[in-house]
Amino acid sequence: SQIKAVEAAIDLEHTAFIVSSKSGSSLEPNILMAWFLQRLTEVVGAEKAVGQFIAITDPGTSLDRLATADRYLRVFHGEPDIGGRFSVLSNFGVVPAAISGIDCRRFLDDTLEMVAACETTRDLGDNPGVLLGGILGVAANAGRDKLTLVASPSLASMGAWLEQLVAESTGKVGKGIIPVDGESLASAADYGSDRVFVYLSLAGELDPDQDKAITQLEQAGEPVVRITLDDRYTLGQEFFRWEVATAVAGSIMGVNPFDQPDVEASKIEARKITDACEAGGSLPDEVPLAADSQLTLFADERNATELQGLAGEQTVAALLKAHFDRVKAGDYIALLAYLDRNTANTRQLQQLRDAVRQHGKIASCLGFGPRFLHSTGQAYKGGPNTGVFLQITATASEDLQVPGRGYTFGVVEAAQAQGDIDVLAERGRRVLRVHLGDEVAAGLEQLNRLLAV
Length: 453
Description:
Elements: H1 2-9, E1 17-20, H2 27-44, H3 46-50, E2 53-57, H4 62-69, E3 74-77, H5 91-99, H6 104-117, H7 128-141, E4 146-151, H8 158-170, E5 178-181, E6 195-202, H9 208-219, E7 224-229, H10 235-253, H11 263-278, E8 290-291, E9 296-298, H12 301-311, H13 316-324, E10 332-337, H14 343-360, E11 363-368, H15 376-382, E12 387-393, H16 409-426, E13 430-435, H17 440-451
Parallel strand pairs: 1-2, 2-3, 4-5, 4-6, 6-7, 10-11, 10-12, 12-13
Antiparallel strand pairs: 8-9, 9-13
């Protein structure tokens, strides 16, 4: 349904489509590209349609070869030595910025000021990237490993980028900084002792309630880092500062910030399922753990056995309570929502986050699948075993066939959700899936009612 919503919001005939993939083989951009190319071909014809597509990918990838052979409007190459999450100041970030009308010369010139400030020849005390990285790394080693991101309204989307940069870079070999983005602010009494707050603000854009809450946290002794941007064009400086800081934090924590050993695991499991479906098979059968009129619960054998022992009464309400009762001080809760990312669903899920924080001063993360698989998913699977996960799925409201494939977008999403939960279970994580069926709004309302008790 989200694909249809995007189509309804744009003028297909006068839209440029940017297909961005470092590896050139990632499933999501490729199947979305195929669908929009098919739709555009129906509207303007095949020859004109490919002329509205731009590819950004590393040299020699399958996307590079396809875009060249099909005569896309342009193919821009990335730098193979730069990892995806560190590539925002390369063609992967700068090309879309230029196309959207940003003055990239001014943007990059401003960014170079931070590059100079972070040179290795600078004294450490004057190096903004090293200072920030030092704070994050030392704090994480001391147990303050929940990086809580607070941003001015116009900078709110910065958190989504920082999630991937920080979680995928530091979350491995049983260690990690867990970025907490989009959580509502509360009083100091509502937080545990595992937080570091970073307040990103834009000069001249003051949110009085936000600023007051941050000041109260400082006065209560919570660690708060304030970063104020002069204007939007200095955003590139923050990209660079945070890239340096993340590398420094990883070094202090004793992890390699430049690999992502656990991201591929769920992709492999998802591909097994989609390949089986394309060969004429179907999605794996599952036996529910419990069900009521709105919600159905599923769990792997180990989690199911543990929850059944803890719950006593084998109802949805009792099993959900038992699942969240497994949270301990210093843990976090992650809501893994394979749902449409719309205003209504986000509001209901944010209410769930507020409920779990009130329950025990616990940090929470909210990720919409499959996006988070390439960001916080690395930390969930390879980081510390301090996460308690609730995967939330629903029946596809309006399924679409993937062009040239023997399965639908709904099957792809279900396969990714199944691959995700299988790997979490294999890594010994505390995980439970709740399926909302066809009535997403009613299911989320019921979930909120049960967790508010």
